[in-house]
Amino acid sequence: MLEEEERGNAPYEGPVDLPDEYEPEEEGADSPGPSLVDDVLALLDDGKTYAEAEMAYQKSRAGFAANRIKGVVAYGLGTFGVLHLALIAMTVGLVIALAPLVGPWIATAIVTLALIALGILFLNLLKKRIDEIRDAFSEDGNE
């Protein structure tokens, strides 16, 4: 138990984080160690190094994101094109499927009116969303 107490009370040997260029002199010399100016200069140098590393990291992140955005745009346009073609095929298929039942002109009219009704529904939903955004940014909030 006495040995544990002696080990726990080791003498203080000085600061842990000394500047890189600090080299202690002989043990017996009365050297005060690094000055406050040396510490501040080391801190500024470390801050500059950190800022340069952070800038390089953010530049590499931005480059990576820009490279990936090109792929996202390409795949998004491809997806939009394929889905657009699928909707055209579905519309033509509906007209062809309804033609034997009601005739080609009435089948075309039914599909056209259904698409117009669907478009008006989406337009009303869009208008509601735009009005909500406009109300959020209006000065009174009640308009």
Overview of this protein structure:
The chain is mainly α. The protein has one domain. 76% of the residues lie in helices and 0% in strands. It has helices at residues 2-8, 36-102, 104-137. Helix 2 (36-102) packs antiparallel against helix 3. The protein is elongated, with a radius of gyration of 37 Å. The protein starts with a helix and ends in a 6-residue tail after the last helix. The mean pLDDT is 83.
Can you summarize this structure?
With 143 residues, this protein is mainly alpha-helical.
Throw out a few tags for this protein.
single chain; 143 residues; mainly alpha; 3 helices; membrane; Putative Holin-X, holin superfamily III
On the 0 to 100 scale, the average pLDDT is 83
Q: Which geometry do the CA atoms define?
A: elongated
How far is the N terminus from the C terminus?
79 Å
Structural class: mainly alpha
Task: Please summarize the sheet with the most strands.
Answer: none
Number of helices: 3
Total beta strand runs: 0
Helix coverage percent: over 70%
Total domain units = 1
Give me the strand/helix succession: HHH
Uncertain spans: none
Tell me what portion of residues adopts beta-strand conformation. under 5%
Radius of gyration: 37 Å
Helices and strands, with pairings:
Blueprint lengths: L1 H7 L27 H67 L1 H34 L6
Helix pairs in contact: 2-3
